Every structure is written in C-alpha cells, then in structure tokens.
Amino acid sequence: MATKHEQLLQYIMSLDIGHKISVRQIAKALNVSEGTAYRAIKEAENQGLVSTIERVGTIRIERKKKENFERLTFAEVINIVDGQVLGGREGLHKTLNKFVIGAMQLDAMMRYTQADSLLIVGNRVKAHELALNEGAAVLITGGFDTDDHIKRLADEKKLPIMSTSYDTFTVAAMINRAIYDQLIKKEIVFVGDIYTPYDQAYYLYGKDKIERWYKLNEQTTHTRYPIVDEKKRVVGMVTSKDILGKDRDLLIEKVMTKNPISVQEKTSLAYVAHMMVWEGIEVVPVVNDSYQLKGVVSRQDVLKALQQIQRQPQMGETIDDIVSSSIEVSEDDPTIFQTKVSPQMTNQLGTLSNGVFTALMTEASSRLLGHVKKGDLVVESLTVYFIKPVPIDSELIIKPKLLEVGRMYAKIDVEVYSERKLVGKGLLMAQLMDR
Fold first, then answer.
1. Most Cβ neighbours (<10 Å): which of 18, 271, 294, 393?
2. CATH for 66-186, among 3.40.309.10, 2.30.30.100, 3.40.1390.20, 2.60.40.10?
3. Is the pTM of this model over 0.90?
4. For helices 319-326 and 354-372, what crossing angle results, to 10°?
5. Which residues 6+ apart lie within 8 Å of 276 measured at CB?
C-alpha cells in the first residue's frame, strides 16, 4: 500500500497541467496536516512536477525530459527576470523554443515570431496583440503594462504576457545565461538518472530469516541486499560475508550491518563513484528524505554511466571542459603534455588561477594513467606548490611521473614548466575504478 507521502505525490501528478495548487488545498483534499502537504509540494518541486512563481503561486507543470533541458518554461523565465504575470497564467507551464527581440518594424518582427516563441519587446501594444495571435508569449521590458483587451486575449489564448523592470538587452542576456547554465546541468548525471527503481530492485525485511537470503541469491545471483522495516525505511545492508556460517533460521536483523551508507536521487554520479571506491562497496540503497527505499544503484550502473558520458558530445563548457580540451600530448613523449593559458583560465590579476592549475595537474595525471592502466581516476588527495605566477598566453609543459601504481591506487608526481622554468609542483594520490 502506498504511503501517505506517495499518495500526495500521486494526487499532485493527477492534476491538470497549469492547475494552481496550495498547501491548504492539498491538506484539505487529502485530509492531512499542512506540514505534510508542504513537504509533498516541495518534493514535487524537486521532481519537476510543480513550479513556484513569486506573486503567482505554485502551479502544476509538465516534467521536462532530460534531453530538453536546454529549453525553458515561461514559468522559469518569470523567475529569471523577476517579473510579474499580466495575463495568460494557464500557459506558464509551456516551453519556449526560441526568443525574439522586438527591436524592429512590426512586419519584420512578425516574420520571426512564431508559435511557442517569446517576444521580448517594450511598450508596443500592437506588437503584443500580433504576437499572441501568432501563438507566441510576450515579455514586456522596462516595467510597462499593457491594455486590458491584450490581457483578455492572453487569457483566451492561454499564452502568458509578462512584465519585467529590466531593459531588453539585460533580459536577453539573463535568459541566454539561464539556457547556457541548463546545458551545463544537462551533462551532470545524477543517481536519479541511473538507479534501479524500487519495483525492480531486490531487498529483504529485517524480520526475514537468513533462509530468505539464500532463496533470493539463487534467484538473482546477487549477494548484497538492502534491509527495510515495515514502512520500507532502509535500516541495514546484508552481504554474503554477514550470513556466512550463520543458522538459516536466524533473523536477518541480527546479522545485518546497521545504518548503511545511502544516497538520494539528487546525488551526483561523481560522488557515488568516489564513495564506492573509497568504501569498497558494490551496491548503495537510494532513499528519500524519510529514508524510505526508492531503489538501488550498483557499481555496474555507475561504470556504465561513466562510459556513456565519455561518448557524449559536450554542450555547455565548464572550466574542467576548457582545461581538458586545451591539453595536448607532446610530439616527443606521449607522457608529457602541453597547453596554453587562455583568458578563461586566469584570475582577476591575469595569471593562471590556482583552481585551473590543480585541474591541469589532475587531467594530465588521468591521461598518464590511461597509458598504464585502463581505469577512471578518483582523486583522494592533491598537494600543490605554486612556485611562480603564470601570466596569460604562457605555454605550459606538464610532466606527470608515476611513482607507484597498484590494483586500486596510484601515486603521481607532477611538475609544470613555463619557459623551461619550474612554476608548480604537485603530488597526487588517487583511487582507481576499473572499467
């Protein structure tokens, strides 16, 4: 039977797209406390089911697919530009395909304005009307209002017409930046993207006997299972090592490992990968805020996701992307690397930033290990000495040297040169995750 929290989420999911909801309404509809209703709405917001907009309220929205993260809803635009809705609230959940800046004659403006686009324009009432009739939403800049008949038209078309105090250029820059940020987020893989959900995962109850472990092991060939109580809360983990030599009639709760490590859907893949290597564990339970089991994530899930990421094209560039793409292998030696200090790599003084310096050492070390042993590097510690400042446009030579390498770890010494002078030095300790 579904828990009260799950019932609340199912109720929210059943509401029509664009439906306005409130804590009081949810509490009354399902006869729960306002605190319980508030927590359910927050969880729905985390899952992308609802969006809260200042001066509008919380509305049911269509959950965006991961591949469409580079698009924004009109509700998100309102939050980005700190605006207000003048009409067409029912269309706030819709997604915009592109935005058009209305700094041209009306006929030229309409050639670019189409359905599902957003016209960014000043106090030009005729342009507002034409855009809505074309199926486009409108964002009025400069804090201007519009005529009442335009607001009624927006309600009729279910297309939002919004207003912001910012000027047109600032608004365009803000929306563009938000789309770029979404592109970067798109590449970050979370546990929620890769885990095996609850209805497909295998688990045991604390009151089950060890005999039940053997039956599940025979059925699945797995050796590790999360242990839950009667409310599906994770209370432990059991492995083949825990039950070895124990009486088969003994209860699982007597031999399980209590308070196991767990993660949530919003935990990043990088964190899980590091934790699995560091703790030496194969399976981690995925839980919600109440520690109820949502599913499990295995080392195989993590490795598969890491391999897929490496094959995917890059969309938005982070500093790590810039560092990675800038490093080239030396023509004389495949274990020596070179790069040039670009403007994005510098600090406010125009010299190579400490963070980028560290990233260069890590990337070069990772590539060196690629020659020696196939595996993903997880940095455990890095001691760096910044010997001299490195100015912009400097040519760098990075020389990582493998001091020790084992099955699960590596120790690497890294030296960085500019104009044949040593400018930095580091000692990196890393855990290895086999592919």
1. 294
2. 3.40.1390.20
3. no
4. 50
5. 282, 284, 299, 302, 433
| Inter-CA distances, 217 with 132, 214, 238, 254, Å | 61, 5, 12, 19
Q: Which CATH number fits domain 4-60: 3.40.50.720, 3.40.50.10190, 1.10.10.10, 3.40.50.970?
A: 1.10.10.10
The 10s digit of each residue's pLDDT in 242-297 is: 998 899 999 999 999 998 989 998 888 878 887 887 777 888 999 988 889 999 99
3-state secondary structure of 295: strand
**Taking the domains of the chain in order of start, what are their residue ranges?**
4-60, 66-186, 192-307, 314-433
Residues 6+ apart with CB under 8 A from 341: 352, 390, 391, 392, 393, 394, 396
The phi and psi torsions of 415 (rounded to 5 degrees) equal -120, 140
| Distance separating alpha carbons of residues 371 and 43, to the nearest angstrom | 45
Rounded to whole angstroms, the Cα distance separating 14 from 29 reads: 13
